[in-house]
Amino acid sequence: MYQFMFFLFMLTSFFLIIFIMLQEGTSIDKSYDLNSSSIFNIFNNNCNTNQFIVKITVFLSIIFFILNIVLSNLSIKHKNNIMYLNKDTNHIVHI
């Protein structure tokens, strides 16, 4: 269970980084061009692709934080169940 959740966490992290990098930002060139059409495009961006990427990024960030909380709880439980081999007695010891 812990390994599967950790795998999902890493996969979500990877895709979150990818979708953050794919987002379209406002460039400095747009801010220097002061004609009315460029100002309208800055404040009224109707690009469906960018909105879709933003929605996916929000969804992935929510999943990222939920998995982060779940993994922290699982790691506390997992830490309580750790066993190791005592070299002196050759017996398995629960920590």
Keywords, separated by commas or semicolons:
mainly alpha; single chain; 95 residues; protein transport
Detail the topology: elements first, then pairings.
Layout: H1 2-22, H2 28-32, H3 36-43, H4 48-80, E1 83-86, E2 91-94
* Number of DSSP E strands: 2
Order of helices and strands: HHHHEE
Low-confidence stretches: none
Beta-strand fraction estimate: 5-15%
Count of helix runs: 4
Q: Portion of residues in helices?
A: over 70%
Q: What is the average per-residue confidence, as pLDDT, rounded to a whole number?
A: 75
Record the strand order, biggest sheet. Answer: 1-2
Helical/strand content category: mainly alpha
Walk me through this protein's architecture:
With 95 residues, the chain is mainly alpha-helical. It has one domain (2-94). The chain has helices spanning 2-22, 28-32, 36-43, 48-80, and strands spanning 83-86, 91-94. Strands 1-2 form a two-stranded antiparallel ribbon. A hairpin with a 4-residue loop joins strand 1 (83-86) and strand 2 (91-94). It is elongated. The model has no long low-confidence stretch (mean pLDDT 75). The chain crosses the membrane at residues 51-71.
